[in-house]
Predict the 3D structure of the following.
Amino acid sequence: MINDYGIGAEESDRSALNDLAEALDSSGAPVGLRIGKDEALELPQSAKEALARVAAYLANAHFVSIQPVDELLTTQEAADFVGVSRPYLIEKLLGFEDGQIPYVMRAPGSSHRRVKLADLVAFRERQALETAAYGRGVLQDARSAILKAQSSSPGVEAGASAGASA
């Protein structure tokens, strides 16, 4: 199945795609591609690795899009990739002074911005790291609050639950 954002696999194909991904990943042997009855090509290592990764994503029900990382995307495509609205992307992320994602103008004097796919990937990675760090901080704060509450309540044992005594 194909949509505007990539290619997906039918449920019935996922097992075969998983087998293909595992075979390509584990095999150190050369991999060939047969075209028709008479023509065969040996895949270069980079193509073998790319095919293994694509097959693994498709096997796990992900849509796949193959684009060069230096490709320039429209602001709508960039917003879709990041998962925000176009106005939010332009105002908050691209910003006029302190934008978090670099962009280029389509032409001198134009108001049409373009964003490199690589910059969007880097932004998403930074966001994921910041979210994980925030989550660890919240968890640590909660643990500290629980320990403080337990230590300030005389007669309450660590790990005791409310309502345990009748």
Notes: The longest strand covers residues 32-35. The two ends are 60 Å apart (CA to CA). Helices lie at 14-26, 45-59, 75-82, 86-94, 117-152. Residues 49 and 83 are 28 Å apart (CA to CA).
